[in-house]
User: What shape does this take?
Amino acid sequence: MTRVLHVLDHSLPMHSGYTFRTRAILKAQAAMGLEVRAVTGQRHTAPMPSDPEVVDGLTFYRAGGTAGGLPLVREWSEVAMLAERIVAIAREWRPDVLHAHSPALCGLAALRAGRKLGIPVVYEIRAFWEDAAVGNGTGREGSARYWLTRVLENDVVSGANRVVTICEGLRADLIARGFAPEKLSIMPNGVDLDLFGEPLPRDAGLANELGLGEGPVIGFLGSFYPYEGLDDLIAAMPAIVARVPDARLLMVGGGPAEADLRAQAQASAVADAIRFVGRVPHHEVDRYYSLVDVVCYPRKAMRLTDLVSPLKPLEAMAQGKLVSASDVGGHRELIEHGRTGTLFPPDDPAGLATALADLLGSRDGWHTRREVAKAFVRERHDWAGNVRRYLPVYQALLPNHELPSVAA
Assistant: This one.
């Protein structure tokens, strides 16, 4: 059986979009017939009761230690520690391929270990982390740190045997940098339909507790980062309520922008129509999804959102929810306007308000659009099928191995 060791920034039991994508990949690969394990670097900060640690039936090794020290020295120390751990694991478990996931530090560690062991390396890019830092408000485009991160990314892409990106935007950007198209593959975001395929009925008790009335309810469930454009959604609410008086906005989650968003909502002329819930346990998210008619993703227009397609809209479609989103590149890869969702101009509260009020006011097509969107996820973004896209990548590096059939 072919063995794949995944190299990660962090993993379960920590909760993030990164860890949930990882869980889905590992679970689907194991179900397909591959033997998979994973190792995390020093950015994994959850308590580690054992090493290896089994979480949700998956085996994770830990590099151990704590990231610290001066910049650059700290990062190189992280890479060295992770590379040493990969080598130790590989000498015991004997993986056939190292599959590293961004950021570039994981890729650098895998390359160092792969050269020492003579094992091929696949590098998977989920986002360009210099652009993610700009979007999160922790970095500045054009800064020395920004360009150093890009240089490191380019070095990893050059050194890896094959490279996978999560969407066409990232792949096209790498091709524009001069990398060979045949080296680059796409593994799009997906949904584990065993988890998201059966939405709960509307939780009337929870709706009453939150004072949502009968709605309709617009919702956002996720992390509150500046690039998500949630300030534009709050700014649009007075115009939406003017046309749809019973409309309510439900905000579930938290993050760096939370305090500013709460203050903006409190000052809104329709403050009574906006509800903040805060973060909720992952196993309760479905209850809050059950209250929402339209899930809205008003991301700002910037490199990050134009190049990277998010996971959340696919989860919402799988939940049978209407999806609305700003017309940026990452959303256009997932949403066909008027068919699987509604697109509106980015950075434009008035345009957002018009699009959502029009959607809320025309319920006749809701059922059809929900069914079309669910079918789109089932046919093109179910992890059970998506994960087979890795097989040609692995097979090119392991020509003498018998891998599961791509068409199975």
Residues 339 and 368 are 9 Å apart (CA to CA). Residues 3-190+382-397 form a domain with the Rossmann fold fold (CATH 3.40.50.2000). The chain has two domains: 3-190+382-397, 194-380. The radius of gyration is 22 Å.
